[in-house]
Amino acid sequence: MPQPFAPDAQSVQFMPSELVERRSAAWPGLRVDIVAVNQQHSFDYVYKSRQHLLIAAEQAERDDGETLVEGLPKSTLQSFSGKLTFVPAGHEFYGWQNPRVLTRVNYFYIDPQTLPLDAEMRFSEIEFRPSLFFSDDELWRLADKLKREVTSNGGRLHHYGAALGVLLGHELIRLNKGAAPQLAAKGGLSGWQQKKLTDFIEEHLADDVPLGTLAGLVDLSPYHFARAFKRSFGAPPHRYHVGRRIERAKALLHDRSVTEVARAVGFVETSSFSTAFRRVTGASPREFRRTFG
Questions:
Q1: What's the whole-model pTM score?
Q2: N or C end of the chain: smaller count of CB under 10 Å?
């Protein structure tokens, strides 16, 4: 799980940090970080700041992991190449993943106080909404232009980069006013359905919840629910539930025995808990505690 973030961090922090290579450039009110992960190794990431953060994931696929933007349900989507994420200032963003490919992601840090937009737009006073793994063609094209300005010119075309930064601010305002972003996965669950399900699962981690019960919470048939759930969360309901149990178990292992933890997260047999734990993490509960305890 992600480590505690540094207060008001200025960049997305990666752990281990040596896995990441960065190229950066800055203009008034805007800084761009081009990030490439250079090893096929699991990593955590975390961010919280007074600056807005727009994320453009060029290449991002994982075998396992989760992502959370404060105010939205967690996502375990496994492939989100070509997707955007927006983290408003003051919101926490964190996650972890076992990457399937070498990750390439572009980060755009927007200072609401100094981005040079017209004063009457009151950019610094807008209450932006978070968005996770969405598509928007205009915003993606603008992000790509900024990325190319960093990689091709090192940010030396000052006026051009500054103008792109102003356009970026306008696009974020347009997006926030209700031009609904395309869902990351067509046919998936709506936002309210995802939140209702994740809240229910978190409250019943130790219970064996039938598929029909979950489907009934969001007024879908079990067949359509199972398909929509996998599209939204990147895993079937049962696998997602087990994954959340294991995440809870990781935290409990610090000060409880393996048997106590197994029972606390709903496993009758310690052996079945250990098998599920190894399948998800690659280590036994005792190995995990020795390594991370």
A1: 0.61
A2: C
Report residue 224's pLDDT band, with 50, 70 and 90 as the boundaries: confident
13-176 belongs to which CATH class? mainly beta
Q: Return the closest-CA partner of residue 66 out of 134, 2, 4.
A: 2
Q: Which residues contact 129 (CB under 8 A, 6 or more apart)?
A: 71, 86, 88, 176
Per-residue confidence (pLDDT) for residue 189, from 0 to 100? 84
CB-CB neighbours of 45 under 10 Å: 22
- With H, G, I as helix, E, B as strand and everything else as coil, classify residue 75: strand
Per-residue pLDDT tens for 183-222?
344 568 877 788 889 999 999 999 999 999 999 998 888 8
The DSSP letter of residue 136 is: -
Do 52 and 109 touch, CB atoms closer than 8 A? yes
CATH number for the 191-292 domain, one of 3.10.450.540, 1.10.220.30, 3.40.50.300, 1.10.10.60?
1.10.10.60
With a pLDDT cut of 90, the percent of the chain lying above it is 62
DSSP string, 137-174: HHHHHHHHHHHHHHHHHTT--HHHHHHHHHHHHHHHHH
Residue ranges of the alpha helices (H) in the chain? 137-153, 158-176, 191-203, 211-217, 222-233, 237-252, 258-264, 270-281, 285-292
Question: Average pLDDT of 125-151?
Answer: 91
Domain regions of the chain by residue span: 13-176, 191-292
d(CA 129, CA 147) in angstroms, rounded, equals 24
* Bond preceding residue 16 cis, omega within 30 of 0: yes
Buried b / exposed e over 151-160, threshold 16 CB at 10 Å, is: eeeebeeeee
Structure tokens at 286: 């005792």
